[in-house]
Amino acid sequence: MRIIIFGATGMVGQGVLEACLREDAVTGVLVIGRSPTGRTHRKLREISHTDFTDFGPVQAQLTGYDACFFCLGTSALGMTEAAYRTITYDFTLAAARALLAAEPELTFCYVSGAGTDSSGTTRMMWARVKGETENVLLALTPRAYMFRPAFILPLPGTEAKTRSYVLLYRIVTPLAPLLRRLAPRHVTSSLRLGRAMIEVARAATPRRVLATADINEVTTSRP
């Protein structure tokens, strides 16, 4: 299985990338991003690309892949709706359309988030924009899957890029064993999320929107 990853330098994406590099069933990983991951691995290849609304310049390099794990995203804190929509909606759909044009049977796994509202009725801007993004992806291909994790434990040594998240994780991460006991249905890890994506890409599931409990259940035998 060959995988394309977006957002591999982020807190979530680093765990997803690590899961792919560790997995024997994954034979190749292509990372597309603005900055290098700093990783070297026999499976790994990277493409530097800056305009995430236009994948024309790299379109020819998108063939031959089985799945995309789209981990690119940002916090809505302090952002206008227009700016947040560009990153969350425009970038995601531009990538999905380019990839599906290259490989119509490709599995597209999108990291959304707990609280996402696909009904369009919420007053929370981020939840509505993510919901709109999910709706279009689900309509684009029957092999689109939405992952809605709640609290994600990062790989040791990795940090979020948003300052408020950095502070939160520094406080909460040491409490991980307690959190897992108290709220197992709401806590997962970036590594486990990556493993869940691999499992879904390998064997399609009828559930196309996966909450934290679903993510953990998919990888029950592989914590």
UniProtKB/TrEMBL annotation:
CC terms in the record's Gene Ontology section: membrane
Classification via InterPro entries: Epimerase_deHydtase, NAD(P)-bd_dom_sf
Localization (cell): Membrane
SUPFAM superfamilies reported for this sequence: NAD(P)-binding Rossmann-fold domains
Ranges where the NAD-dependent epimerase/dehydratase domain occurs: 3-102
Protein origin, superkingdom: Bacteria
Name listed for the protein in its UniProt record: Epimerase
